[in-house]
Amino acid sequence: LVDPETLDWPNIGRHPLGAKFIGQSKAKAMAEFLQENLPHLQIKGFVGTLAEFLESDAGSSPAHLIISATADWSSERVLNLDHVDCQITCPVLFTWTEPHACAGHAVYLPAAQPCLQCGFTLGGDMLRPVTRWPQNMPNHLSEPACGAHFQPYGPIELMGTVSVAASLALDALLGKTMNAAHRVWAGPVSLLEESDGAWNDAWLAQYPDRNQGAFQETTTWQEDPACSACGHLHHQALVSTSASLDRSS
Question: What CA–CA distance (Å, rounded) separates 70 from 59?
Fold first, then answer.
């Protein structure tokens, strides 16, 4: 478990750890909590950023799967580039929520291509989101006095995203999913409307019968041959194929 932060009061509403862990490292406290309740496992916590972990001895240890739930584009971009450049050789699973946890995603990437960037802009905006929000709408509220910022949703709304991430991770580890996969959860339309959102038009055009939401499905994570991160791999493959054809002719 990798996290640089300590547990604070604004975290309590939707974090597995309770008030007695306030002020402690999230990674260390969560590892100890899980280890105590699941003694047959070996769980460790690393206090630091993803970049610090990857540069450490712990980060160089072999793994079957890396799960990234950082919701931090700069960190996920570094992890994705390391995967594309084969500095990380194991599969990677990325998971995140859309605003107000009205939809959630899990993307399993067993190889360097397709990569996470294939489905995102350079700034980290998803190219084909499930939901749509008014421009200039604030996604975060400010807590009085302490100034903490948060999105107003709780653990119940998060469970849809947790479900797609956990189930896809298990499918990958058990060999049920071999190729790049994208598992999506769409919340009920009531949750979306209460938060002043709407379904993304392009997404709804693909699934016109899903306007009530409340479902999950698995599709293929699409490769972008012009991707700024892994597109060079596509170009190399084309060059290699072209050279083979030249030799055969």
Answer: 16
What residues contact residue 111 under an 8 Å CB cut-off, 6+ apart? 91, 180
Reported pTM: 0.88
At a CB cut-off of 8 Å and minimum separation 6, what does 249 contact?
none
Pairing of strands 149-150, 131-132: unpaired
Portion of the chain with pLDDT greater than 90, in percent: 72
Could you tell me which of 184, 201, 181 has the C-alpha nearest to residue 131? 201
140 phi, psi to nearest 5 deg: -120, 145
- Convert the pLDDT of each residue in 66-103 to its tens digit: 999 998 999 999 999 999 999 999 999 999 999 999 99
Helix (H) or strand (E) holding 116: none
Instruction: Reduce the DSSP state of residue 32 to 3 states and report it.
Output: helix
Closest to 179 (Cα-Cα) out of 129, 113, 96, 234: 113
Q: Which of 226, 188, 206 is nearest to 103 (CA)?
A: 188
Tell whether omega for the bond before 114 is within 30 degrees of 0, i.e. cis: yes
Kindly give, in sequence order, each residue whose CB lies less than 8 Å from that of residue 175, ignoring residues fewer than 6 positions away: none
Q: How many CB atoms lie within 10 A of CB 56?
A: 13
